[in-house]
Specification:
Elements (H helix, E strand, L loop, with lengths): L4 H4 L9 E7 L5 E7 L1 H10 L3 E4 L4 E4 L8 E8 L6 E7 L15 E4 L6 E4 L7 H4 L14 H5 L4 H26 L8 H8 L1 H23 L7 H28 L4 H11 L4 H6 L2
Parallel strand pairs: 1-6
Antiparallel strand pairs: 1-2, 3-4, 5-6, 7-8
């Protein structure tokens, strides 16, 4: 892969990574630090939303893809040694940390006593269990509508609005997937999949399906009462892997120029119909 000229100026480490610090666009507060590879940095510049690289998963991750707490990027800066990136961002939901806090840097070293001691100085703004609920998986790669998510005054109205937002998201995704079919293979992950052909796309669907099964098995073995952190992480992992399955399935449909509407219409046809009757009618 030939890097654009501006990316060649970046001094990635031996693993092809560079630390990226996200800083609040208005307050200047440091929100988090993560890693980027060349593709993540390029996608961040193209989409103006933060995309990072997970070392543990060895894959790209869009900030907020499970929580809805995406980061809109206003400015990207490179330090004098070209080995650290600083992003100036607007943090959706005001929460950057997976613990439900504004910033990942919520512990302060207290030097007032005889022995230095770490103290938690930021409060939890939202319970992580609520952040990484299954409803949030609908916001993959898109900014969550916090007004809808937090408004419980009118349940029927909220349900309609959420359905509208999800439908709009799928339409936008259909459009992006269609555009990627004409894009250069080096320009994006999806474009590279199209360039490799249908077998590669189907291979990814199978791979992500297996990973979702493993995540489900791991989650089933977790006991919330014994280890809440492990339980929440396993739950998040399952949601993450299922989102990958859905996404790659949509890429496969787009290969055949089939939009998500076709699947939604089929599900709509089945709604309220007995599964036994539906199978008999095939």
């Amino acid at each position: 892969m030939t890097l654009p000229t501006w990316l060649t100026a970046v001094n990635f480490n031996a693993d092809g990574l560079i630390p990226a610090i996200a800083q609040d666009h208005k307050s200047g507060r440091i929100l988090m630090m993560a890693w980027m590879n060349a593709e993540a940095l390029q996608l961040t510049a193209q989409t103006q939303t933060a995309v990072y690289f997970s070392r543990s998963r060895a894959k790209l991750w869009h900030k907020g893809e499970s929580s809805g707490h995406t980061q809109t990027v206003h400015d990207i800066r490179l330090d004098c040694d070209a080995d650290v990136i600083v992003l100036s961002v607007t943090q959706a939901g005001g929460i950057a940390c997976h613990t439900g806090r504004e910033s990942c840097f919520y512990q302060r070293l207290d030097l007032s006593g005889q022995t230095p001691e770490w103290q938690t100085v930021d409060k939890v703004l939202k319970d992580p269990a609520d952040i990484y609920s299954s409803d949030k998986s609908n916001h993959t790669h898109l900014q969550a509508d916090d007004a809808v998510a937090n408004n419980t005054a009118d349940t029927e109205s909220d349900t309609t609005q959420i359905q509208t937002n999800t439908y709009s998201m799928l339409q936008q995704l259909d459009q992006v997937l269609a555009e990627r079919k004409q894009a250069d293979a080096d320009s994006s992950y999806v474009a590279s999949l199209y360039a490799k052909g249908l077998n590669k796309i189907l291979e990814k669907v199978g791979e992500e399906s297996v990973e979702s099964i493993i995540a489900a098995k791991d989650f089933a073995n977790c006991d919330e009462s014994r280890d809440k952190t492990q339980y929440d992480e396993a739950r998040h992992e399952l949601i993450y892997e299922v989102a990958d399955v859905w996404f790659h399935t949509l890429v496969g449909l787009a290969w055949f120029d089939i939009e998500s509407d076709a699947v939604l219409n089929e599900l709509g046809r089945r709604f309220g119909l007995s599964g036994i009757d539906e199978k008999a009618a095939r």
